[in-house]
Amino acid sequence: MKLELRGITKSFGSLVANDHIDLVVESGEIHSLLGENGAGKSTLMNVLYGLYEPTSGQILVDDKPVKFSGPADAMAAGIGMVHQHFMLVPVFTVAENVALGAESTSFGGVLNLAETRRKIREISDRFGFDVDPDALVEDLPVGVQQRVEIIKALVRNSKILILDEPTAVLTPQETDELMDIMGQLRDGGTSIVFISHKLREVKAVSDTITVIRRGKVVGSAPPDTSTTELAAMMVGRAVNLTLDKADATPGEETFKVTNLTVMNDAGQRLLDDVTLSVSQGEILAVAGVQGNGQTELTEAVLGLQRHVLGSITLHGQELVGKTVRQVLDSGVGFVPEDRQDDGLVGELSIAENLVLDLYTRAPYSKAGTLNKAFIAKNAVDKVAEFDVRAQSSQDAADTLSGGNQQKVVLARELARPLKLFIASQPTRGVDVGSIEFLHKRIVAERDSGTPVVIVSTELDEVLELADRIAVLFAGKLMGIVPGKSSRELLGLMMAGLPADEAQQQLLEQHGPGTPDATTEPTSEGEPS
C-alpha cells in the first residue's frame, strides 16, 4: 500500500508544528522519518493516524485522497500505529488487549476471544514473535509487549505501520530483534514509517530516509549516507559526532553507595542492595532500560526518597537522612531527568533559574536581600559561557528550546565548586549540536577532578562518556564493567544477566577472542 502526504501543515495557534510537508512511502518499504526531538515527527504521524486534523494539506492512500476524523478511520484505511508509550492494559491478557476496541461477542453479549487467539497465533508463528495469547501483559518483557502492539495493528489488517521511536525502551538485543521483524514485515508487503532520532538504527533498517527539521522536510537520503551528513541535515550545520575524551586518571574514591535499598510506600523494593563507588576524576555511567531503579538511585542520593536503607557517603559524610538543601550544600550538583518539572521554574527568567540553589548565599544575596545587579551579571556571563540561545537573560525559561533549557540547568549546577556531579538523562530531547556541547562540559567537569555519575537510557551516550558502566535491572546491580565494553555484553546485562554470566554466554557464543566482553572487580574485590 502506497502512502502520500501533500503539503501537510499543522498549527497550534501561532506555533507551526508541521509546515507544508510532502512525503511518499512506497508499498513494501521502510521509510524513516529522522529528526531531533521537537522537530515535528510525532505530530505529523498523529495527523496521519487521525489523532490530529491537519490545518491544511492532503493524505492519499494508493493515490486516493482520504480524510480521517479519528484513529478508527485510519485503521479502516489500513494504517496502524505503535506509539512510543504502549497503549496496553497491564492486567489484561494479550488476546484481551488485541481485541480491545474491536470486540466480537457471541449470543448474549459474551466476549468471544477464540478468533482473536487464532489470529495472534497465526501472526506470531508467521513472524516468529513467540507470543502467548493468554499471557498477562504485565508479566511480559518490554520487547514482547511491543510485539503485542504490532500484532494489534496486523490483526486489524494494517498495510501501513507507523513505529514512533520504537527502540526507546528496548535493550540492544531487543532492538536487533525488532529490526529483523521490520524486515520480515516489509518483505511481506507491509509499508513501515520508522520515526527515530537515532542515526545508527535509521541507517541499519531504512530503504529511504527523510529528514525533518523545525517542522519542515529538509531533504531525503539513502541509508548509505554518512552519519555526519545526516546529523548536519538534522541540525543545519556541521556537527562533530565523536567526543574527544582522554582516558580518565581516577583519584581518591570519595563517593560510596553501600547496600542501598529504596522502597515505595507499599514496601516494594525499587532499588535492591546496590553497592558502588565513584572516584575523583572519573565518570560512572548507570545504564539500563528506563524504570529499573535509576531514578530511585539518583533521588536517594539527593534526599528525595523517603524509605531508604543503607549508606551514601561523600568524602566520608553520610547523606542518607539529610534534606535536599543539605545535600546540595555538601557539594552535590544535580541535573534531574525531567528539566521542565524538576529542573526549572518555567515562568521565572533565565537569570532567576540560574540561581535557584545559590540565591541564599553571597554574593547573590546579603542579609536576606537579593543582589539583583550581581544576579543579572551572572546570567549574562553564564548565557555566554554555555551558549544559551536567547534574546535576553531576562526571558522566561519556558520560552527556550529543550537544548537551551538543558544548558541553563547545567550552567547553574556547574556554577559552584562540586564534590559530586550527577546528571540524569543529560541530553534527553536535546538536538545533536547541543549534545556535542553538553558532553564536552561533562567531561571537563570530570577532568577538573570531580566524581561524575551519568544516568542514561541512550546506550550511545553511555559508551561515549563512561569510564566505567554500572547496569541496573529490576532494581538490582548486574555488575560494573569497563567503559569500552561491547554493546552485546551491556545488552545481556540490561536484560537481567549478571556480568559474569553475560560474559560467559558471550564466550560460549563467540569463543575466547570475544572483544570487550570483560568485567572488572568491584571496590570490594568481588567480580562485578
UniProtKB/TrEMBL annotation:
Gene Ontology MF terms in the entry: ATP binding
Transmembrane spans: none
Disordered: annotated span: 502-528
Signal peptide: none
Gene3D superfamilies registered for this protein in UniProt: P-loop containing nucleotide triphosphate hydrolases (3.40.50.300)
Superkingdom assignment: Bacteria
Pfam families: ABC_tran
Keywords (A to Z) from UniProt: ATP-binding, Nucleotide-binding, Sugar transport, Transport
InterPro entries reported in the protein's UniProt record: AAA+_ATPase (IPR003593), ABC_carbohydrate_import_ATPase (IPR050107), ABC_transporter-like_ATP-bd (IPR003439), ABC_transporter-like_CS (IPR017871), P-loop_NTPase (IPR027417)
Ranges where the ABC transporter domain occurs: 3-239, 255-499
Protein name: Simple sugar transport system ATP-binding protein
Organism: Arthrobacter stackebrandtii
